[in-house]
Amino acid sequence: MRAGPHSLDSVVALLESGKVSSRQLVEDCLGAAHDPAGEGGRVFTRLYDESARREADKLDACRRPGKSLGLLDGLPISVKDLFDVAGEPTPAGSTLLADAPPATKDAKAITRLRNAGAVLIGRTNMTEFAFSGLGLNPHYGTPRNPWMREEGRIPGGSSSGAAVSVTDGMALAAIGSDTGGSVRIPAALCGLTGFKPTARRIPLEGVLPLSPSLDSIGWIAPTVACCARINAVLSDEAYRLPESIDLRELRIGILQGYVLDGLDGEVADRFEAAIQTLSCAGAQLFDAHFDALSEIPELNSKGGFPAAEAYVWHRNLIEQNAAQYDSRVLSRILRGKEMSAVDYMDLQHARRRIIRNAAACFTTCNVWIMPTVPRVAPCIAELELSEEAYFAANAVMLRNPAVINFLDGCALSIPCHRRGEAPIGLMLAAPAGHDAELLRAGSVIEECLARNVGPMNKH
Prior knowledge:
The protein has helices spanning 8-17, 22-34, 40-43, 49-62, 108-115, 160-167, 184-190, 224-235, 265-280, 295-299, 304-321, 327-334, 341-362, 380-385, 387-406, 435-450; strands at 44-47, 76-80, 119-124, 173-177, 193-196, 217-221, 251-255, 284-288, 367-371, 410-415, 425-430. It is globular, with a radius of gyration of 21 Å.
């Protein structure tokens, strides 16, 4: 198989027919990861060469024609560096924890992947401790976005290596985390599909935390159907392809307010084109006004849940090892030191009220749509050289996706650019617990847009 993103359904069909083996898939992925001209050295913090080969051979020996050993039978999947894997430390993109005591057992999500037949191909690089939407990592390097790679653009974060592992054929899908957009941002910037489920549906046991109030496990894959397959595995629910629905029955709210402010020209053009495409196809689109939306930036002005909760987890490590942190990550964590108990409780109360407000708004529509991020991927060098540029870009990238984490909702980013253009994501969002409905809507919207746009051509 050639390198690059492939539908999981199509690869499973090839495996079941005997036209390809899991060992072949693993060798293709490892070949891409070890290519000296590629990004593998920056994408992975650890590769599982031998264990992946052994597991693939074991699955190939057990497989029978027309039979599957699980929903992810024989598929090479990458996992973000903050998941516990038994016998290994969990560094979370840091050098500080590189020699920490090894995990005694797999994270619950890793167990579910293995039980479904997935082959773990490696641990992917990330923003240190998952605390940025850009993907820069001064310890392990920053994977370059496949778009205009020669210019060295950011992949998005914090699940940076996750996205590039899929675009470059080093994995067929990638498991990450999403506290404020950490799977949707890199999915959007790299031309892939990213899904953030309702947080409580996927157990976080064995995942290094950033902000327990907002943390969720998410994943990056080529299509909505791929995301639905992984969703069934990680939620331990029955698998169903997203049911076909009539686009004309969809009521789509175009979320108004600051999520539409300051869009790059390319983002604005592609977002408007997506709206026009959906409207011409018969979808019911209307402006959605969510009155409490404007309160969220002010509520987060002192650092919000991530700063407060990250500081609680990190405070002892910082006292002993502050110099080993990425200074930009450290400065964001330390904002939590200045938050009082009153600030934190006020934030909790306001969040509950705003979630109720959002629920009332959602009664008029099936999904909200908005640009996943307001700008195309900036250059890595620009952000490395300037603190001002770094923090401005980080705020912009996190702005829209973080709204859905704050609202405890579920969200999906799908590509809406034309082949060869800068990758741009269209974000769909729904209230907590409406994951199946969101995937159904995402599937029909993806199909509609595919008639006019295509996945990024990185070659």
